[in-house]
Amino acid sequence: MVALPRAASSIPFYRRPYVGYASRRVLLFFVVMWVAASLNFFLPRLASGRDPIRSRLGMQAATGGSITGIDELVASYSAKFGLDEPLWKQYVRYLGDVATFDFGYSIANYPARVSDLIGNALPWTILLLVVSTLISFVLGTLAGALLGWERRPKWIDYFFMPLLTLSAVPYYVLGLILVYFLAFRTTPFPLNGGYDIGSQPEWSLSFALDAIHHSILPALSIILVQVGSWAIGMRGMMVMTEGEDFMTYAEARGVTPRNIFLRYGVRNAMLPQVTSLALSLGTIVSQAVLVEVVFGYPGIGTLLYRSILGVDYFLIYGIVLLVVFTIALMTLIVDLIYPLLDPRITYQR
Amino acid sequence: MQATPVTSTTISPVAGAYHRTRYRDFGSFLRRNPKLILGLLLFGSLLAIGFLGPYVIDTSEAAPMSVMPDQPPGGDILLGSDSQGRSLLALLVEGIPLTMEVGLLAGGIGLLIGTILGFISGYAGGVVDLIIRSAADIMLTVPGLLVLIVIASSIDGFVEIEVIALVVASLAWMWPTRTIRAQVLSLRSRPYVEMAKLNGMNTFQIIWRELVPNLLPFLAASFVGAVGSAVLATIGIEALGLGPQDEPTLGMTIYWSIYYSSLLRGLWWWWAVPVAAIVILFVSLFLITAALDEIANPRLRKGSS
């Protein structure tokens, strides 16, 4: 067990355990990005034995004389990833593009750049996901702590057990049910979209309220499912914490149940929840993609769905890479903060 | 993560007696555990629809243009029909076994790879352990569904169900690898493993006769969990339109119902029928996993009701 050194000044900076841990962790981040970019480059070429992008471009050029400039797109793609070039050269060039966030042009809506399309959609997704994940994390952790506490009131069980079962259901399935009952049969909420059809995205209070109104149902379908899974993890940790000696000792010392619960129990039991948060970001995003499709929410998920329907390879691959990048970055941040929260951690990677 | 209860009784001289009490324990556990019974019942009812259904109803109605389109349930067509003229009951009977097949195949392969890697990693240690562990960690960080989308969208033309299963399995091995490695690490230093070593058992015998039996409840829980995530991933890709276009799996039915905006057109049965099947499937897998977890990890029993 290596605790954070209190008198750190005596140890040279580069020898401190946290610095070593952090640099390994940052290295892992770059490795993840490199692996993701490589998968993105090689998988399409392996899966079909030939270049699907080339065939898609050919298809577009053959049928879509109406789309102006597609010939230039084909030409620029061929120049960049020409068959006359050896594969490793194409690969190096691709990695360079990725490093500068240059994902090329969208095939389906040609003059638009992939990075611009993603840039328009990303804030919607980030806002929806960050808010709903934070709400579910707090609610779920609290519910799980109560469920794992021996002295909980009985009604807690009956109240939360259905919620735990709900955690098994995919977000978007719950979304379908919610839309039907809360937007189609009765109409307190809009059916789909991120804002009213007549309005344009702008920085005004009325637009913000409209956007929030549209986000409630998508957020609700994420929250209702997530609360259960956070509660399950927390319940297990709480039960384990309760067996610890310091809990018995606190009780013997006459600490009030409220303090035992919050300061001794929850505070210790919730730390692994933070690790779970880092690990489950990928799953949350994957699931949220489909929620957006169900609600026609103008975020990354809907953009991805449209790009798949339009066989827009550049857009598909650009979205995948960017989302992987975002998740890797968020995981990195959580991992870097975690040892500062929990001094008991060991730095064995 | 605490391992299985210390069943060091494996070295008990009367192996038969040990097994008998173990089974009786399990029987009484089943009676005490309504979760497992409910889970198995729900899962069994889905199996019944899928495997007895073809003897009761006409599955040719799962093909397009075989019945009147857009019919509400309750009339001639029991669960209604979709806009392409397919009976939803027939779709259900055809789709449930297909979806389960993908789940079992992908979950099974993923768990198998994960178990092998986990054992190698936990037992070999050193560089091998480092490589396997890092690979699993890196792949865990990458969101599975998105990689699956890259693969599935790159496959040319017709996608078969087995291909989808393999694609899903290729990203289902990381959790098993990690958790089983942890279990192996904690089990291999137990006294009864030391004992077996002293008795001259070789590594393979120790793994097969000492470790695997003790990991069985854990492996069973992992298997159900793996099947659940595989089905989740499969339905996810299918709902995005990357599944087998002419197979009536549950995910493809959802995809078509979204594609033809059944919700806005008031054809609620079109999405409600596959959604009900999916919810029942996931809830049953969830209940079974939770119950098996409690067998594998008795500490959990205390806190839950």
Classify the helix fraction of chain A into a percent range.
Answer: over 70%
Which structural category fits the helices and strands of chain A?
A: mainly alpha
The most extensive interface between chains reads:
A-B, 63 and 48 residues
- Tally of DSSP β-strands of chain A: 0
Number of helices of chain A: 13
Derived structural class of chain B: mainly alpha
Give the SSE layout:
The complex is a heterodimer of chains A (349) and B (305).
Chain A (H helix, E strand, L loop, with lengths): L16 H32 L3 H12 L6 H11 L6 H13 L14 H35 L6 H12 L4 H15 L19 H38 L2 H8 L4 H13 L1 H25 L4 H10 L3 H29 L8
Chain B lengths: L14 H18 L1 H23 L31 H37 L1 H16 L2 H11 L6 H9 L4 H15 L2 H8 L4 H37 L10 H10 L8 H29 L2 H5 L2
How would you describe this structure to a colleague?
The complex is a heterodimer of chains A (349) and B (305). By secondary structure, chain A is mostly helical. In chain A, 72% of the residues lie in helices and 0% in strands. The radius of gyration of chain A is 25 Å and the shape is globular. Chain B has helices at 15-32, 34-56, 88-124, 126-141, 144-154, 161-169, 174-188, 191-198, 203-239, 250-259, 268-296, 299-303. Residues 1-17 of chain B have low confidence and may be disordered. Chains A and B meet through helix 1, helix 6, helix 7, helix 8 and helix 11 of A and helix 4, helix 5, helix 9, helix 11 and helix 12 of B.
Which features does this protein show?
heterodimer; A: 349 residues; mainly alpha; 13 helices; 0% strand; B: 305 residues; 12 helices; 71% helix; disordered N terminus
Give a quick rundown of the structure:
Chain A is mainly α and 349 residues long. Chain A has 13 helices and no strands. Chain A is globular, with a radius of gyration of 25 Å.
